[in-house]
């Protein structure tokens, strides 16, 4: 299996990370305004379980990317809640962060496929698509409810942070900004400026926002933006649609 790790720039397996990239399968990029991950199908070396391996190389990254990637790894391992993408294991080795999750693909990939096929859809197919969207949004809502009940805010809800698992179910991920409610100098407060303005509630754009912080409404705004993104409203028009 060493040649599989060489394809990822490593000479050996990652210590404490019993997952190996699958052979003969290419990678996918999952990009958000905060981080860009490489996704590869993989398999558990101990139990043969199918996984998706997220990785990000930090050797040339600035301090903010390093902090966000390590924070995402920490939250992925600790926040095992309904509606979140299930993390099976994570590790950092040779300045690269690895996260193994249940098999998935970016929601954006499926949305692009649906968009390409939209001209050929009949009424039944359109209804099936809308039903899948409704179920997907319900799953995201379940994840946010679980986070909030545990005193966490996600902070990065969008089509970039949603993934589709086997069977077509949606799962929320992208935990690099996840923080506890009203945490002083939280990672969300320090890096929310990396997000497009249309994905941030108007009050968070105010200069004095950090002095009167209360970010429990951030996910409500993000969920609303996700609904518009999924249903085909261009992102650059999202804010004008809300105002």
UniProtKB/TrEMBL annotation:
An example Gene Ontology molecular-function term: ATP binding
UniProt superkingdom: Eukaryota
Domain Protein kinase: 17-243
Protein name: Protein kinase domain-containing protein
InterPro entries linked to this entry: CIK-Related_Protein, Kinase-like_dom_sf, Prot_kinase_dom
UniProt-listed PROSITE patterns: PROTEIN_KINASE_DOM
Entries under Gene3D superfamilies matching the protein: Phosphorylase Kinase, domain 1, Transferase(Phosphotransferase) domain 1
